[in-house]
Amino acid sequence: MSVLLSLLTSAITIMTPLLLAATGGLFTELSGMLNIALEGLMLVGAFASIVGTYYSQSIVIGILIGIMSSMILASIMASITLYLKANVFITGLATNLFASGITVVLSFHLFNNKGVIAFDKMPPIPRLFEGLADKIPIVGHIFFGHTFFTYLSIILLIVASLLIYNTPFGFRLRAAGLYKKSLTTIGLSTKKYRFIAFLLSAVYASIAGAMLSVNLGAFVPNITSGKGWIALVVIFLGQKKPLGLLIASFIFGFSEAFSNYAQGLWDIPSEFILALPYVFTLVAIILFSIYDFNKKRVE
Amino acid sequence: MTALAAVFIIHALMYRSKTGFELRMYGNNNKFAMYAGISHTYYQIMPMFVSGAMYGLSGAMAIFGTYHAVIKEFSVGLGWNALAVALIARYRPFAVIPAALFFAYIDSGAHSAMLYSDVTFELSSIVQATVFFLVSSVTLQRLGLGKRRV
């Protein structure tokens, strides 16, 4: 029982960056662009926010610097994709490549170190509702006492959902993805909405990256390690709906937490167990497409 | 040699055979291909098989020809760069050769730059990224073509 509780607690910690990045990707996905640059935007956000936090000794300023730098990269990518009419897939790849290069080059120039940079003096990360976690029995530690990033991710998910489904902006954003001509006929520019979608996804992705690096108190090259790609899977698994994203990212977080826990448990090589989340992805996608297929046949 | 042979074989498969014709038809308009009586599932799975074979070949070539040793994670970034090279080459198998050479040139240039000055190797990925950013831009391509015509 206590194992399950600790699994659930770490599942929520693991799912937070996934959820944030996936929510960011939701904007671009709904606006009709496949944003494979989430990984790179996360990486730049992670690097810039931990460096910003280190120099300013304030997490908020650090995250803001991370958001700014991630947005700059996203605006370069978006303007090349939209206004110079480049292939969004290639520019996404370029962004990832650029991010993995620039973080290492900058860390070499700033700290003379290409590898892991551990920051000794870091401001503590506030944990919220710690008193509540002890008061409520059993489930208290699952929902309360996490870092503020977790609660921020939920709040930002709700904000995203309100923005997408309850404002004219969100309506037009979805129109850009569903039927491009509908926007053009009422005299609005599709490009503008897609550009904003890219910027929003950069904001979300950089907060996700900031959580990874600031939580650790160190920057590791390629700290995102494929989280941006999993976030893309989360979007499709979650049916491009906010609640679906929450469920899908929780499933991912849980399977990763389980594979971390189960490594030494059985007599199986640990590599197999570490591959578990990815096997799980595959199974989930297959099951989901079977479900989709059957539903279509019934209709 | 093997890589060049593979380019020729893929070109022959794509542009000089019935399979390639049907495959391109399926890619251009799958509904039309369906009405023309072309197997739907076959052309969804067969290209994956062929590309899997090519990936396996490139992995084997990297081990036997380039590194002469099995290094853990030797293929990091290789697949992504290859994907970008393929996207630059578009639908022309022969265009893969100059595109791949260009990328290899940037990489080896960064290697020698690292030896002779104090830049880091990762600079090459920034240069590659800049090329990626601009290479597929339709507007810039049109600009280049316009100049050539004048």
What does this structure look like?
The complex is a heterodimer of chains A (299) and B (150). With 299 residues, chain A is mainly alpha-helical. Chain A has one domain (2-298): Orthogonal Bundle (ABC transporter involved in vitamin B12 uptake, BtuC), CATH 1.10.3470. Chain A has helices at 2-30, 38-56, 59-83, 88-111, 130-135, 140-143, 148-166, 168-178, 180-185, 190-216, 227-237, 242-261, 270-274, 276-298, and strands spanning 117-118, 218-219. The longest helix of chain A has 29 residues, at 2-30. Chain A is globular. The N and C termini of chain A lie far apart (43 Å). With 150 residues, chain B is mostly helical. Helices cover 77% and strands 0% of the residues of chain B. Chain B is built from eight helices and no strands. Chain B has helices at 2-15, 18-28, 30-35, 42-67, 78-89, 96-116, 123-135, 138-149. The A-B interface holds A 76-77, 80, 83-87, 89-91, 93-98, 100-102, 104-105, 108, 114 and B 77, 80-81, 83-84, 87-88, 120, 122-126, 128-140.
Q: What kind of sheet is the major sheet of chain A?
A: 2 strands, antiparallel
Shape of chain A: globular
What CATH calls the topology of chain A is ABC transporter involved in vitamin B12 uptake, BtuC
Strand tally of chain B: 0
In which range does the helix fraction of chain B lie? over 70%
Task: Reconstruct the topology from this structure.
The complex is a heterodimer of chains A (299) and B (150).
Chain A: H1 2-30, H2 38-56, H3 59-83, H4 88-111, E1 117-118, H5 130-135, H6 140-143, H7 148-166, H8 168-178, H9 180-185, H10 190-216, E2 218-219, H11 227-237, H12 242-261, H13 270-274, H14 276-298
Antiparallel strand pairs in A: 1-2
Helix pairs in contact in A: 1-7, 1-10, 1-11, 1-12, 2-3, 2-4, 2-10, 2-11, 3-4, 3-10, 7-8, 8-10, 11-12, 12-14
Chain B: H1 2-15, H2 18-28, H3 30-35, H4 42-67, H5 78-89, H6 96-116, H7 123-135, H8 138-149
Helix pairs in contact in B: 1-2, 5-6, 6-7
